Amino acid sequence: MKFTRRTLLKFAGIGTAVVAMLPRVAFAARNSLRTVRTGIQPGNKTRLVIETGQRPSYSVSYPANQLVVTLSNTAANASLAPSLVGGSLVTAITQVQSGDKLQIIADLAKPINEIPRDNIMLLSPNGDNDYRLVLDFAAASGAPVVATTNTTNKKTSAPSRKYVIVIDAGHGGKDPGCIGKGGTQEKVVVLSVAKKLKSKLDAAGFQTYLTRSDDTYLKLAHRASIGEKKHADLFLSLHANANPSRSMQGFSVYTLSEKASDEEAAKLADAENAADKIDVSGFEQFDKDIRIALSSLQQHAVAEMSVEYANGCANQFKRAKITQQPGPDVRHAPFAVLRSTVPGALIELGHLSNATEEKLLKSADHQNKLVAAIVKSVQSYNFDV
User: Fold this and answer.
1) Is the pLDDT confidence value at 382 over 70?
2) Model pTM greater than 0.90?
3) Does residue 93 form part of some domain?
4) Of the candidates 119, 137, 155, which is a domain's last residue?
5) Burial class (CB in 10 A: 0-12, 13-18, 19+), 183
6) 232 plus 363 within the same structural domain
7) pLDDT, tens digit, 9 for 90 and up, residues 38-73
8) What's the CATH code of the domain at 180?
9) Phi, psi of 290 (to 5 degrees)
């Protein structure tokens, strides 16, 4: 069985209408590497199999004469001896731990091209096997070799069906969000980016919705519920940051967690969640048919998919040479707007408190650059796993 998000919702027996404000587990416990092995497939293809205890979040890159698979939130296995068959393109395999990421580096006898998405499979546990990430590839034959990049493992063409993306432009109405020294309001910047992003994603074959299309104030629960009601496959909340240090700059990407990954993430979540304190009256009542519980299975899946998207988003921003805020690629905090059954991330596009970035965030060219990176991150996200 292919465990898509909707399969898991059905498996949990709760349907697609679920309370958008319930707490849940932030992300899966650290993954473990079980085995690494190679084989030979018809057509003189080499098969690389990476087996892990939990469903892996991964990316693939192609340095010269190497294939590198990066596993997020995974620990190295020093006692593991890779099983290599003779006659394959893989001559050696090593493990490199970098923070919470594990790189599986396969040395190749010949260069290869980027592996087509159809030749990358993620298999669910079966019998004595755990999760298996399977990559089939052959030596390059006249085609240009892929340069060293951090290319993600997903397809970048138009989707086979119209995946639904809900774009949330943060703040709005009586809540301006951050205000730069030059008077730039966060609510204005993010709405401009959201509209451009919708246009580009629509053109790329996605079905997109905005939580707000004008200068409207929305409660955080309402924003999250829009993702539920539209049966979204991905929820993106766009914001601009502020920092007491005016020298601080750069983008950052966050996913939901009941415990913040660091003090700065906690403060940011408090600031973003404070939007609901502007108006304490008029709390919306949820529909009676909305359930009040989420299964642990579904929580686990949504959290993993959110982290997977967030890692891919951060990678696309860095590839576009957009300045990154110092710190980890992805952070975690209890953002109310992300409390739903929809995988999602909160993207801080930059710092309005920084004079240079305030000017950039106002400029059409930079907004277009941000949009292009987000579009690529959506196109490369694996919706079907």
Assistant:
1) yes
2) no
3) yes
4) 137
5) exposed
6) yes
7) 998 887 899 999 999 988 889 999 998 999 999 998
8) 3.40.630.40
9) -75, 130
